[in-house]
Design goal:
CATH class: Alpha Beta
Number of strands: 14
CATH topology: Metallo-beta-lactamase, Chain A
Bound molecules: zinc ion
Radius of gyration: 16 Å
Helix content: 10-25%
Distance between the termini: 47 Å
Length: about 220
């Protein structure tokens, strides 16, 4: 609204709402501890993608929305679920997850459609970094969790989740990136990853970034 100044938390990241009214806020942008990025997607179905580990994240969410319908987990590594209890307590939100969790109310399945904000997202099962990893692919945005990130300590413009810990697999991650590319509409212009910065398409598309991450993963070299 013109002439009205809304106080915003420092570190506020958002996009102008698209035609569907969707906005994305990185609610862990001010975290001092190690956390994943937790993204609040506003619109008809306010949704938090991952909960992160920043104490008080629920109060940041409450600065933007009165109600939170659901938390959708990309996977259940501790940096993604640390504050899940606090968020669920604060909002009585449903929990959508692929793998079992005491707070889960909905079991995610590959190829199902989940509404987040004002957009329908295709659930794409993308294991490799974690057995229970899913990515959320909409018409305008990709929430990629840790399977593909824009930047991290290893690469600045297209990287992928680590696969050197027990239970992880580079080969499965490579297959997952191929699946993601198969199911990525050309209209997707923003990528929100579990770590690092969001990526907004300009000269390069989200597809370019995912393809570069794939080619780097295919070298099958240790990442760090
Ligand atoms: Zn992870």
């Amino acid at each position: 609204m013109q002439g009205v100044t809304t106080p915003r938390p420092a570190g506020y990241i958002s996009r102008a709402p698209d035609a569907s009214g969707m906005k994305v806020h990185d609610v862990t942008a001010d975290a001092e501890e190690f956390t994943c990025n937790a993204y609040l997607v506003t619109g008809d179905t306010p949704t938090l993608v991952d909960a992160g580990t920043m104490p008080g994240v629920e109060t940041v969410v409450a600065e933007f929305v009165d109600d939170l319908d659901r938390v959708v987990l990309t996977h259940q590594h501790s940096d993604h679920v640390g504050e899940l209890d606090a968020v669920v307590d604060a909002f009585d939100a449903d929990v959508y997850a692929y793998a079992d969790h005491p707070l889960r109310t909905h079991e995610l399945a590959d190829s199902e459609t989940v509404t987040m904000g004002a957009e329908a997202f295709d659930v794409v099962y993308t294991p490799g970094h974690a057995d229970d990893h899913v990515s959320l692919v909409g018409e305008t945005s990709l929430f990629s969790g840790d399977v593909v990130v824009y930047n991290d300590g290893a690469f600045d413009d297209g990287s992928f989740g680590r696969t050197d810990m027990p239970g992880q697999s580079r080969e499965r991650l490579i297959e997952s990136l191929e699946t993601l590319l198969d199911r990525l509409p050309a209209s997707v212009g923003a990528m929100y990853a579990g770590h690092g910065d969001p990526f907004y398409a300009d000269e390069e598309s989200v597809r370019d970034v995912v393809e570069r991450a794939l080619s780097r993963a295919e070298r099958r070299e240790p990442k760090y």
